[in-house]
Write a structure and sequence with these properties.
The chain has twelve helices and twelve strands. By secondary structure, the protein is α/β, with parallel strands linked by helices. The longest helix has 28 residues, at 281-308.
Length: 309
């Protein structure tokens, strides 16, 4: 079995493209790092770097090894931490819309079935999130289902659709559109803010809608948070779209008014994880909590949409 330290030394040399810098980072001598890489190459009977007096360049085998080395080192660190502490950490990465819809309620349910499990949730772009999942820096990703299915590495992952939720257009009370029809072209007379990563919806918009947005140079504002978009609409004539559940408190209080907007695809919340992790207890427990929360939210959303009709 290969000594894990050799993998650690390889990862440092690859990342820094320098034996000297790797030795400095690892607090070793240059010759110790050189011998370690030579030991690994001899054991596997394949060169991992091309070396010259001026450069260190990975071979094809080195390029193939690096992502696996990152996965292995991350997994090793997790095993050590969990063995020593007896606790586990569930690492979630996702987008702001999915988090705002689900995360607090899911965590509250999850803590009942896994009280010793710590939860860490980071916000990332879809590509970065999936890469973190593949490299074992995360256990679960939560995003728009359509976005997840279009990501690289999809064949290595399993996706679980949680729920589907309609978007609604929201705007301040007494907004001029209250006296206008609901034609999308008319609404483009005003500026728009889109939350999160809605640019990934471009390929799912009805014929003509993406072109109309581009022609109007909309959205003029793309904000990280759906809450920020709604706050912007409260204080201006800017229009935004958000999933119906996120708008409900502001609709109930009268801070915003809302309207169904024909043609915008539903927000399909999806959860992704590595295929080999499907039988892990913490993943199964999380899926159970997510599905329970989603059923409740779906019933509530159906009532919300009736009230907007």
């Amino acid at each position: 079995m290969t000594d894990l330290r050799l993998i650690q030394y390889f990862e440092a040399v690859y990342r820094l493209l320098s034996f000297s810098k790797a030795a400095e980072e690892l607090h070793l001598t240059h010759s110790a790092v050189t011998r370690a890489i030579k030991t690994l190459e001899d054991a596997w009977d394949t060169p991992l770097f091309y070396r010259t007096t001026r450069s260190v360049v990975p071979t094809e085998a080195g390029e193939r090894l690096y992502p696996r080395a990152v996965e292995l080192l991350a997994f090793s660190a997790t095993v050590m931490r969990e063995t020593v502490s007896g606790d586990r950490e569930l690492k979630i990465v996702g987008g702001p819309i999915a988090y705002d819809i689900l995360l607090p309620t899911v965590i509250n349910a999850y803590r009942q079935v896994a009280p010793r499990m710590r939860v860490r949730a980071d916000v990332m772009s879809p590509h970065a999130a999936v890469e973190a999942l593949v490299q074992r820096h995360a256990d679960v990703v939560i995003f728009n289902m359509s976005t997840l299915q279009a990501m690289p590495h999809a064949s290595r992952l399993r996706f679980h659709e949680i729920m589907s939720e309609p978007y609604i257009m929201v705007f301040r009370p007494n907004h001029p559109i209250m006296e206008m029809d609901n034609q999308f072209e008319s609404l483009l007379a005003f500026q728009w803010a889109f939350p999160g990563y809605l640019d990934y919806l471009d390929g799912q918009l009805p014929d003509g809608m993406a072109e109309a947005l581009a022609s109007a140079d909309a959205p003029q504002y793309t904000l990280y948070s759906p809450t920020a978009c709604m706050n912007l609409s409260m204080m201006s004539d800017i229009l935004t779209i958000v999933p119906v559940s996120l708008a409900q408190a502001n609709l109930d209080s009268g801070r915003l008014a809302g309207r169904r907007l024909p043609g915008i695809p539903d927000y399909r919340v999806g959860l992704g994880f590595r295929r080999e992790a499907e039988q892990e207890p913490h993943i199964r427990d999380l899926l159970g909590c997510v599905d329970s929360v989603a059923r409740t939210l779906s019933r509530e959303n159906a009532q919300r949409l009736k009230e907007l009709s």
